[in-house]
Structure formats: C-alpha cells, structure tokens
Automatic annotation (TrEMBL):
One of its GO terms (biological process) is signal peptide processing. The lineage of its organism: Bacteria, Pseudomonadati, Pseudomonadota, Betaproteobacteria, Burkholderiales. GO terms for molecular function: serine-type peptidase activity. This is Protease 4. NCBIfam families: SppA_67K. The keyword Aminoacyl-tRNA synthetase does not apply. It comes from the Bacteria. Keywords: Hydrolase, Protease, Serine protease. The keyword Protease applies. Belongs to the peptidase S49 family.
Length: 625
C-alpha cells in the first residue's frame, strides 16, 4: 500500500473538519452581522422622537463608569458582542444628561436602575453624587432601584430621594481592602528568578514576584490608605441616609446576630437598618413612578439615558475660546495606544493638537492612571510643559487613580486638583529582568556562545543575570527616581529631600496628598474646568471641547451603535452562543500577572520606546476600590 493510500483517508477527515469549522465560522459571523444590522436600524429609527411632557429619565448604568471608552469603536462593539469585555458608560455622558434634565421642564423625575452597574472609583462616584445633588435642587425626585446593591451602586443609590430593593434582595456593604496572589514559591519551583530592582521602600508594584506575602511597609501604606477611604465612604452614606455616625460599622460588626434576629431575611434587615425606604419589585416601582409621571401604551413614559443624550443640542463654541479636556486614562505605554490606555506618542499628539488649536485657550488633563512606562510618562509631561510655555494654562484633574506615572504626567501644570479619594503619589521606580536559568537546568537544556564584550547578550532570559548588568540597571533605576523626585520637587516648589520623604513609592489619598503638598486642592472635574477658564479669562461658563483622536465615518457609526444598542445585541448573541465561560477571578489575576512577567523578558521593539537596557517602570500596585 502506497503512502498516498495511507494518508488519503486522513486528508479527507481533515478537509471535512476544516469545511465544518469554516462553515460554522461563516454562520456565526453572518448571524452577528444580521443582529448588528437589525440593532443599527432599530437605533436609527428609534431616534428623533419628540420628548413628551411628564417624562421620566432612566439612568440604566451599563457596566463600568469610565472616563473614555476603551479601544477603537470597532473593538468596543465586537468585544461587547462576543462577551470579551464589560459594558461601559462614560462619566461625561451621565453628568451631561443629569445637568440637562435638571433644566428640562419635560423631565419630571430620574429613575436610577442600578442592576447592571459595574465598577466606579470613589472619585467617579463623588462626581455623580455632585451631579445628582444639582439635579435634586430642581425639586425633582430621584428614585433608585436594584434587585440587590453592591457597595458602589449603593453609594449612588444613597444619594436618591427614595431607595428601593427587591424583597429577596440585599445591600452588600463590605468595606475596603484586597488580597493578591504572591508567586515567589511558585517561581522558585519552576526555576524562574524575577530579578527586581527598585527604589522606594513602599514601591510594591513588583513585590508579588519576589515575596510570598505583603511586606510590612505595604501593609502599613495600604492600611493608612484604605482606612481613610472607608471612613469617607461611611460618612458620606450615613449623611445621605441620615443615619447615626458609626451605624454602618456597627451593623457589619453585629451582622450575624442582626440577621439571625430577622430569620435570615436580608431585605428585611436592610429596611430595618434604614438603608432602603421600601421593599418593592420592579413593577411596583414602575407603578410608583407612574403616579408622578404618566403612561404611554400602558407603560411608564420614559426615555433612556442614551436616547436623551442623543437629542441634546451640541454646545456651540464661544468666540472667546474653549477649554480643551484631554483624558489620560489607563496604563501608560510607549508609542501609540487606543483609548483606554495612555500612549507616549498618541497622548502627546493630542496635547500638541490642543496647543496648536487657536480656539483652545486652556487645557485640562483628566488623569485616571496607575502609571506605566517612565519614558512615555516623560513624553506626556514634556508636551504639557511646552503647552504652558506658549501661554496656555494647564490644570490637572485627578480621577480615581493618579499614581506613579499618573503623578509624573501631572507635574507640569499650573494647578493640580484631586478628589479626596483619589489614589495618588507612589513616587518610585521599578525594573525587572526575569531569568529562567534554573528552569533550563531542570529541562537539561544548556546555552553557550561567543560575544565580543560582556554586555553583548548580557541579558538572556535563559542565563543567570550578570551582576554587572544588575548594577547598571540599578544605577539607571536610581537615576530615574532622582529625575522623578527632582521634577516633583520643582513642580511642588519643595526640596528633593521633602519629596523623597513623602515618596519612596508610598500611595496617598487625595486629602492625604493635599496635607503633604503633593496636590493644590480638592475638587471635581468642573472645578478644574472653572480654574482653567479663569486662568485663560474665558468667563464663568466656558465652552468645553474633548480633544480626542479623529475617527472615521465607519468608526463613528459603529460607536453610535455600541453606545445605544450594544447591551441588547450582546445579550442576544450570548443567548445564541450559550454564554461565554469566564475564568475565576483569582486564576484570571494569576494569568494576567504571569503574562506580564513573561513580557518583561522580551526586548522592547515598539516604535517610540526608550531602547534602554531595561524598562523603567513607574507603575503603582494600586486600584481604585
């Protein structure tokens, strides 16, 4: 029997399998396209309806509340449709609709449906609290409902005039803090050395790779940070709900006894504790809202947030100029980056665009970043310095996190305004050169070769780290730290020693940073805009323009679809595909951490990178709780 006869049946099997796989792929893609097309037509034809009197504005916050959508418009749409990313709602859209609705006679009330709300930093929640307060000054009620509330969504609900939860629901207030994975023993077991160089006693960004538990310094810094954030959360909620001071902490401490006293009925307990005003199902809440609004076709006359935002008239720029807002959100990376990350080149280009735009008279940099590349951070800071040099004021508004590299890019400004709960500081530097020489030994694999100098091939992940290279990298890291502290000292009008005393990689809340002179004052984004306008003599109600990368017509079309119809479409797609499996959170964290470690062993060939022997990382191991 010839070879052809032997392999022919195998070939037919593979061709058949490929035909089946390719056919399935086409069917799924066509199904996705059809659903997107239907949703697009629905989105187009559902717009343009005249707003009727006695209308209820529905704030159905979908997913995480962010400063800007992550990725390109196409990436956002496909990721949501395929279930690969959480839904997102922009903070600016929420603020705009609340402020507009407060002045709109046709809007009689706001209904916050918080069932689908995801992450939101304390600073973001404070922005929304202020907007809800402005709305309530119009004497229109705000009603909040959810089947159950988590800590973030309840903070927002507590600002409403009335708060309702499902009779089988609850309010989950836990406090702040977190646990992390630590990998030293695991890395030792497989034969990998992290080789971490750092400057800063509290700089714990790379700590999980060379330790099995948080250091005493990390525990000290995190307890100081989280205790402050937790105290502020309790105070805000207790004031909003008119509870006694310390009521929340006491209820948590006595939770087992209190829950047992109501026979385990969590909804009854939160009602008893006055965290909610009543236990209602969704239809009962609708009936309540109908009493204050009106019905259309036997249902509440209401308009979703997206549809209301779409019909708001655009604000025309004033003759005296505009304040340009540039969003710097996400990790700081070298080169170009899509929205949701800060690219050294791409974000610098946006700042140049604002500087060269004659209509923009002042710039507000809205920072929400834990940092990243020191080189990319310096590129962004330098562009802000040049913007100030041409006479355009720069004001920094710190969001949930503006730490490490996020603080670095904030240093060249006329004023830094932070939220009391902003996580900031973390002035410190880390470098890492992971090697796997012990792993190679376990695999009985050896390396060898010739180089003209010790530096050629000095860093090879397969070989032990040369002590001379370690010394070179440590010197480079120390120099970067000196640059960081020196620039911070110049910006804050302090000595390098004073900055070093509050630096060393330690993180602070915004209010703690104010006490230490790292920021100028507490405030919201609108306070930063007002300050920038005043510095540029633009009056009290300036025109505002978000400076963002230009999008193609197709991207704008896809973006509009994503913002209006993606949650509905995604739900249909997931039902059709039977859902998308997700890794448990701890395993997902481990996957991310180990992937990041592996990336450090790769040479940085990205255009715009610093080409240094090791990347100087000004990143904070901190997240907004």
């Amino acid at each position: 029997m010839g070879l052809k006869a032997v392999f022919s049946p195998i070939g037919r099997v593979f061709r058949g399998a490929w035909w089946l796989l390719d056919g399935t792929r086409r069917v799924v893609l066509n199904l996705l396209f059809l659903i997107v097309l239907i949703a697009l037509l629905w989105a187009i034809f559902s717009k343009g309806k005249t707003l009727q009197p006695q209308t209820t504005l529905v704030l159905d916050i979908q997913g995480d509340v962010v400063e800007q959508f992550s990725g390109s418009a196409r990436d956002q749409a496909m990721a949501q449709l395929q279930g690969e990313s959480r839904a997102q709602t922009r903070l600016r859209d929420l603020l705009a609709v609340l402020d507009a609705a407060a002045k709109d006679d046709k809007i009689v009330q706001v209904y916050m449906d918080l069932n689908h709300m995801g992450n939101a930093s304390p600073a973001t929640l404070h922005e929304l609290r202020a907007a809800l307060t402005r709305f309530k000054e119009s004497k229109k009620p705000v009603v909040a409902f959810a089947n159950s509330y988590d800590q973030r969504s309840y903070y927002l609900a507590a600002q409403a005039n009335e708060v309702y939860v499902h009779p089988m629901g609850t309010v989950m207030i836990e406090g702040y803090g977190r646990y992390r994975n630590y990998y030293k023993d695991a890395l030792d077991r497989v034969g990998i050395s992290a080789n971490v160089m750092r400057v800063g006693t509290y700089k714990n960004f790379a700590e999980p790779y060379f330790a099995n538990a948080p250091s005493q310094a990390s525990m000290e810094a995190e307890s100081y940070l989280y205790d402050e954030l937790w105290a502020r959360y309790q105070l805000d909620v207790e004031q909003a709900r008119k509870l006694d001071k310390g009521a929340i902490a006491k209820a948590i401490e006595e939770l087992p006894q209190r829950l047992a006293a109501v026979n385990g009925d969590a909804a009854k307990l939160v009602l008893q504790e006055k965290l909610v005003d009543g236990l209602k199902t969704r239809d009962q809440v609708d009936q309540l809202l109908e009493q204050r609004g009106t019905k259309d076709d036997k249902q509440l006359r209401a308009i979703p947030m997206g549809a209301y935002a779409a019909q708001l008239p655009p604000k025309l720029p004033k003759a005296d100029g505009q304040v340009g807002i540039i969003v710097a959100e996400g990790e700081i990376v070298d080169g170009q980056a899509a929205p949701g990350r800060i690219g050294g080149d791409s974000t610098s280009a946006l700042i140049r665009q604002a500087r060269q735009d004659d209509k923009i008279k002042a710039v507000v940099l809205r920072v929400n970043s834990p940092g990243g590349s020191a080189f990319a951070s310096e590129l962004v800071r330098r562009e802000l310095e040049l913007t100030r040099a041409v006479g355009k004021p720069v004001v920094v508004s710190m969001g949930g996190v503006a730490a490490s590299g996020g603080y670095w890019i904030s240093m060249s400004s006329d004023e830094v305004i932070a939220d009391p709960s902003t996580i900031t500081g973390s002035i410190g530097v880390v470098g890492m050169l992971p090697t796997g020489e012990k792993l190679m030994d376990k695999l009985s694999i050896h390396t060898g070769g010739y180089t003209t100098t010790w530096l050629a091939g000095a860093y090879d992940p397969r070989r032990a780290l040369d002590p001379r290279l370690a010394a070179v990298v440590q010197s480079s890291i120390e120099h970067t730290y000196a640059e960081f502290t020196g620039r911070a000292a110049s910006a804050r009008k302090k000595s390098a020693a004073q900055i070093d005393a509050v630096g060393q990689g330690r993180v602070w809340t915004g209010s703690q940073a104010l006490e230490r002179g790292l920021v100028d004052k507490m405030g919201l984004l609108q306070d930063a805009v007002a300050s920038a306008a005043k510095r540029a003599n633009l009056g009290e109600d300036p025109s505002v323009k978000y400076v963002e990368a230009e999008r193609s017509t197709l991207e704008r079309l896809v973006s509009g679809l994503t913002e209006t119809a993606a949650p509905t479409v995604r739900a249909e797609v997931l039902r059709a595909l039977g859902g998308v499996p997700q890794l448990p959170a701890p395993l997902k964290e481990a996957q991310t951490d180990i992937t990041w470690l592996a990336e450090q062993a790769q040479p940085d060939t990205k255009a715009g990178a610093s080409r240094a022997p090791v990347k100087s990382i000004v990143h904070c191991l901190c997240l907004a709780p």
